[in-house]
């Protein structure tokens, strides 16, 4: 039975590899997503599964995000009405901040989004001093999403809904992830040099893992690799963050081995070099798939499809 299962698995892997090489997989994925989007109403759970199991095309990505995050409803007949209502809400919040003289034409979109979010939640303080620093993860997320999504209206709502999803769904899971990074890195660092270097130079505790996770690598990863990580998070896999952290350390292993200063290491890990982003995320997703996280419904509590507006 074991041999039979192994043979069947090998055959499936070879067939998938062959189809991908001749371009069939891309055709299959395109047909799959187009069929999913024709469902009335759209099956949100199937969209999540699609994000986990397939690369998401740029053509559909932001629409998928908005449906999964509840920015727009799964019922196509209601989407236009809801979008108009969302836009009015966006304009009202922005206008209110302008009247209060808390924003102007020179305010960065990330700061605008933060203040809009805080005033909507009833949490906007009277003073701006230290506001951005206290909410740096939100600002980083808003900045990265603003660069990916052309329409500021869409960018705001995706930022807000993703932030709420991440906080509501993963806040109890994230504190345990740094230890998982150490465990996985020990397995994947084949020659053990990086792990040994981090231990010998007492660098483990200064690795910005918590900051990476709190912002989901926003402002750390280049735009396109970051979008691919967002796909998996929105699909329901918080564990992708662990694999990205390990892949980041392994991808930058050579320069890290030359650094002994805690300050130098921390500064170097603040932002991934542009030419390393794709390699890093490819490595992360390969490891993530190898461990089967793309096949399960979710590796943590699934995103709530009924988030508060």
Task: Describe this structure as you would to a colleague.
The longest helix has 24 residues. Helix content is 67%, strand content 0%. The protein is mainly α. It has 17 helices and no strands. The N and C termini lie far apart (51 Å).
Task: Write the SSE topology.
Layout: H1 2-21, H2 24-38, H3 44-53, H4 58-69, H5 76-99, H6 109-121, H7 131-134, H8 136-148, H9 152-170, H10 177-188, H11 193-200, H12 209-214, H13 223-235, H14 240-251, H15 253-257, H16 262-268, H17 277-290
Helix pairs in contact: 3-13, 5-6, 6-8, 8-9, 10-14, 13-17, 14-17
Quick structural gist:
This protein has 309 residues and is mostly helical. The chain has helices at residues 2-21, 24-38, 44-53, 58-69, 76-99, 109-121, 131-134, 136-148, 152-170, 177-188, 193-200, 209-214, 223-235, 240-251, 253-257, 262-268, 277-290. Helix content is 67%, strand content 0%.
Structural class: mainly alpha
State the total count of DSSP E strands: 0
Question: What is the straight-line distance between the termini?
Answer: 51 Å
Roughly what fraction of the amino acids lie in strands? under 5%
Shape: globular
Low-confidence stretches: 1-24, 301-309
How many H/I helices? 17
> SSE string, helix = H, strand = E?
HHHHHHHHHHHHHHHHH
- Specify Rg, calculated over alpha carbons: 21 Å
Nearest-integer average pLDDT? 87
Summarize the amount of helix as a percent range: 55-70%
Largest sheet: none
């Amino acid at each position: 039975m074991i041999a039979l299962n192994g043979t069947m698995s090998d055959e499936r892997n070879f067939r998938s590899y062959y189809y991908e090489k001749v371009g069939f997989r891309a055709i299959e994925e395109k047909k799959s997503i187009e069929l999913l989007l024709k469902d009335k109403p759209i099956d949100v759970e199937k969209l999540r599964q699609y994000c986990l199991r397939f690369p998401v095309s740029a053509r559909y990505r932001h629409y998928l995000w908005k449906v999964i995050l509840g920015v727009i409803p799964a019922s196509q007949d209601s989407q236009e009405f809801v979008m108009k209502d969302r836009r009015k809400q966006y304009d009202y919040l922005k206008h209110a901040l302008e009247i209060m003289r808390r924003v102007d034409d020179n305010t960065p979109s990330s700061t605008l989004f933060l203040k809009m979010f805080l005033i909507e939640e009833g949490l906007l303080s009277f003073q701006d001093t230290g506001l951005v620093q206290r909410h740096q993860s939100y600002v980083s997320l808003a900045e990265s999403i603003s660069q990916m999504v052309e329409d500021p209206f869409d960018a705001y709502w995706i930022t807000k809904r993703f932030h709420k999803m991440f906080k509501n769904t993963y806040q109890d899971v994230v504190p345990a992830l740094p230890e998982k990074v150490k465990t996985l890195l020990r397995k994947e660092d084949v020659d053990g040099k990086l792990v040994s270097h981090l231990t010998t130079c007492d660098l483990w505790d200064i690795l910005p893992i918590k900051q990476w996770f709190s912002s989901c690598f926003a402002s750390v990863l280049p735009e396109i690799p970051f979008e691919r990580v967002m796909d998996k998070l929105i699909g329901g896999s918080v564990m992708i963050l662990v694999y990205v952290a390990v892949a980041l350390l392994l991808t930058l292993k050579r320069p890290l081995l030359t650094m002994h200063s805690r300050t130098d290491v921390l500064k170097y890990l603040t932002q991934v070099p542009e030419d390393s982003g794709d390699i890093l995320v490819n490595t992360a997703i390969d490891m993530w798939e190898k461990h089967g996280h793309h096949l399960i419904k979710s590796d943590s509590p699934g995103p709530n499809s009924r988030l508060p507006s």
